[in-house]
Amino acid sequence: MSVKVMIPTPLRVYADKRDSAEVSAATVGEALSGLTSQFAELRKHLYTEDGKLRAFVNVYLNDEDIRYLAKENTPTKDGDTISIVPSIAGGCFGMPIDFETDRELLQWPRQHSRKPVRSQPPALPTKKFFAIAAT
Amino acid sequence: MSETLEVGISAGLTEKIRAHGVETYPYECCGALLGRENSSGGAAVVAREVLGLFPLVNRRDDSPRNRFAVTADDVREAEKAASAQGLEVIGWYHSHPDHPAKPSDFDRDHAWPWYSYIIVSVHTGVPQDMTSWRLKEDRSGYLEEKISPIKASAAN
User: Fold this and answer.
1) Nearest chain A Cα distance for residue B26, angstroms
2) The pTM is what?
3) Average pLDDT over residues B56-71
4) 3-class secondary structure per residue, B46-97
5) Which 3 state secondary structure label does DSSP give B148?
6) Between chains, do B112 and A88 touch, taking CB under 8 Å as contact?
7) pLDDT at position B45, please?
8) Which of A48, A61, A124, B99 has a CA-to-CA distance to B125 between 20 and 30 Å?
9) Mind listing the pLDDT tens digit for each residue in B77-118?
10) Is the Cβ of A83 closer than 8 Å to some Cβ of chain B?
């Protein structure tokens, strides 16, 4: 199956500055493997040393998060689009209040099993800091 | 040949990042840096310019004093906003409440290459140092990026 893999901005420098690549694959996992075969430098930024997708790497088949499908075993068909979308995380020194949920919370709110402090996801702030230089 | 990493940002946008850190103190703030690569610096200077900010909500409401998170959906929102202005998301900013403006091991474990990571230290509610970093290619650490002032436009 021929599928298109969309490459996020921070990884394009390792993919000849391309924003997408065509691969032949029967599953999402095969498609990602095909991508890293074409562009080997991508591998360390997508996978941990033990071969698992990094927690902050989100993969969508068309518009569905593969975590809610069959993960990397999700089958693909001709014309499908796989998107790699970053999550961003960080923080200053020290342990978080709840260490065990560090990895889980990158998938918050959909997979968070514990009740968050706020009962509703907070809205994005108003764009009072949003300023673009005139071109 | 070693490259000089540099990010330009106006005084106005710098103050907005600092103000965001003060607003959310004692919790970490976070947001997207919108801008573009600047090719005018020459081959030895890898420069880019921050031309806008897209403040975000820290999704780590379990440990916001020393953790921040931006979900994939928020990343997409920031990218849409950047694209609408003919820009791209070139990095992210966040604050370190009562900690130095240096990336932690946790920052490094979760960092993406290529992005500029601006960190502002906010000590007892007062903004202090602001630094910028890019992840090394081998993920072993960060390269500090020079922050250079650029002229503000009428917008910022």
Assistant:
1) 12
2) 0.83
3) 91
4) EEEEEEEEEEECCCCCCCCCCCEEECHHHHHHHHHHHHHCCCEEEEEEEEEE
5) strand
6) yes
7) 63
8) A124
9) 999 999 999 999 999 999 999 999 999 988 998 999 999 999
10) no
CATH fold, domain A1-88, is Ubiquitin-like (UB roll) (3.10.20)
CB contact under 8 A, B61 and A117: yes
* C-beta atoms of A11 and B113 within 8 A: yes
HSE-CB for A68 with a 13 A CA cutoff: 9
- Is CATH 1.10.340.30 the right assignment for the domain spanning B4-150? no
Task: Return the pLDDT at A98.
Answer: 46
Chain B residues 23-82 with CB within 8 Å of chain A: 28, 30-31, 34, 51-57, 59-63, 65-72, 74-77, 79, 81
Domain boundaries, given as residue ranges, for chain A: 1-88
Structure tokens at B147: 């922050």
Residues in chain A closer than 8 A to B53 (CB atoms): 129-131
Q: Measured between CB atoms, which of B51, B86, B113 is closest to A10? A: B113
Contact A8, A32 (CB under 8 A): no
Residue numbers of chain A with a pLDDT score lower than 70: 94-135
Helix, strand and coil in chain A, % to nearest 5: 30, 20, 50
Q: How many CB pairs under 8 A join A and B?
A: 166
Burial B4-26 (b: 16+ CB within 10 A, else e): ebbbbbbeebbebbbbbbebbbe
pLDDT for position A111: 39
Question: A102 contacts in B (CB within 8 Å)?
Answer: 67
